[in-house]
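ok trying again, last paste got cut off:
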Amino acid sequence: KQWYQRRVRGDFKEQKSAANFPSHSGPISALAFSENGYYLATSADDEVVKLWDLRKLKNFKTISLEDKYNVRSLTFDNSGHYLAVAGPDVRVYQISKQCDLITTWKAHTQDATSVKFGPNVEYLASVSNDRTLKFYSSPTASA
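nice, full thing came through this time. structure:
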């Protein structure tokens, strides 16, 4: 984590790229860094979410989504163990070698546009084009 932070800070000053992750086949739609500094999640119009290990600077998992699934927002919990995805529904994945889907909510009538974990993953909140804010009980209670 410290190497990565030093590298990025130095490159801001020098205006150079610290790393390049060419892999998506469509325009990038969302990204999120884990709080622990280990992971980066990206999504694109190619209906996949890619998870990158910033310590090794490589993709370690690709999560395939349904056809025409438009990711609007990605966010990690504070521990970096869970990733929430907002789009036509709201999903939570447990970050591991398998990246298991824990739960899916279809509470909005239109696409969810943003999603955030509450403190200690006690709840999850999402907002949507349907002009609503939804709260969900801990998505990790069954994990």
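cool. The chain is about 10% helix and 45% strand. Residues 1-7 have pLDDT under 50 and may be disordered.
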